[in-house]
Automatic annotation (TrEMBL):
Transmembrane segments: 35-53, 65-84, 96-112, 124-148
Lipid bilayer topology: Multi-pass membrane protein
Protein name according to UniProt: Prepilin peptidase
Natural source organism: Haloarcula salina
Domain Preflagellin peptidase C-terminal: 280-317
UniProt-annotated stretches for the region Disordered: 212-255
């Protein structure tokens, strides 16, 4: 495989994004240090290309290059930040797409013996937009696959497009959120990271709560000195037992079933936007049922990795589809 040195160096991003996607699936956490070396490389390669184009002989090529870079940096970077700001992206997702905007502003070219990759380019020529559109298409395919899988297994429910049934005994080993409340299907059910934080804060297990839910609803069951709740990750779940008697409540109001308000006011950060009512409803569901519907979601870095690989090999799938129906 031959190409320019900057384009070949850009391929370093593929294994890094692959590792980040794997890490996101396993832990839903990607360390910030993952992106730092790639960000430095991206800036270096962008300056390298800019210098090569600026000192090149073709003025038209110069204008196209800098217009495409401006679109990549001026559109994709603010879009990534906006999605993070409104909660559509996690922090790692936003950083990854900002990195893509700097690392891949224009189409790379890789020459094989009989063909040059990517196969399908677009008229606008902004490669980060191709990665973005391919990522969206890969993400859209996920709920379709989930629905077909549930249909094949005879799992019929309003949640079948976005979730799957999980035994309550295994729910604390899952990522995602409940798709149920005491009233039925609920897309905004309890976040399972928040559930793990709550259980760690209380220094108990879900089995403990299910064995005696009436007692655990009472303020007197709350620990006098709660544990550090952590961040809800399976990798950090656990913690040491509380030093004081875990049954020694402090006289909280009985208007706070399960100690939901006390938990959320006691921790020094948000439990992923969980409200007291969401926590209470989730606990009621988990104490009453043996199986619940859970939306595992899909870590956005997974379709992003797929989108990157498809973009580097095939090119722009959406552009091909629009061409096929005569719209491009």
């Amino acid at each position: 495989m031959l190409g320019s040195i900057p384009d070949l160096l850009r391929l370093v991003a593929v294994p890094v994004f692959g590792w980040a996607a794997y890490r996101d699936v396993k832990t839903r956490r990607v360390p910030n240090r993952t992106w730092t070396p790639l960000a430095a490389l991206a800036v270096l390669l962008l300056l390298w290309d800019a210098y090569a184009v600026w000192t090149g002989p073709l003025a038209v090529g110069q204008r196209l290059f800098f217009v495409r870079v401006a679109i990549s940096l001026g559109f994709v970077v603010p879009l990534s930040y906006a999605f993070w700001y409104i909660g559509g992206f996690g922090g790692a997702d936003a950083k990854a797409f900002m990195l893509v905007a700097v690392l891949f502003p224009v189409y790379p070219v890789y020459y094989l013996p009989t063909v040059a990759l990517p196969l399908q380019q677009t008229a606008i020529g902004v490669f980060s937009l191709t990665i973005l559109s391919n990522t969206v298409l890969a993400g859209v395919a996920y709920p379709a696959a989930v629905a077909l899988g549930n249909l094949a297994r005879g799992r019929l429910s309003p949640a079948m497009v976005i979730g799957r049934p999980v035994s309550v005994e295994e729910v604390t080993e899952e990522y995602g959120r409940l798709l149920e409340s005491p009233d039925g299907f609920d897309r905004r059910g309890l976040d399972l990271d928040a559930l793990r934080m709550y259980l760690r804060w209380r220094d108990c297990t879900l089995d403990d709560i299910r064995s005696d839910p009436t007692r655990h609803r009472l303020p007197t069951s709350l620990p006098r000195v709660p544990n550090d709740p952590g961040d809800g990750s399976l990798a950090t779940d656990g913690g040491e037992p509380a030093a004081d008697d875990p049954l020694a409540g402090d006289g909280d109001s009985v208007d706070d079933p399960w100690g939901a308000e006390r938990f959320l006011s006691d921790i020094d950060h948000s439990a992923y936007g969980t409200s007291p009512d969401q926590l209470r409803d989730g606990l009621e569901v988990l104490t009453e049922r043996e199986e619940v519907w859970v939306s595992p979601g899909i870590p956005f870095l997974v379709p992003m990795f797929v989108g990157l690989v498809v973009s580097l090999t095939y090119g722009d799938v959406l552009f091909s589809l629009l061409q096929a129906i005569g719209l491009a």
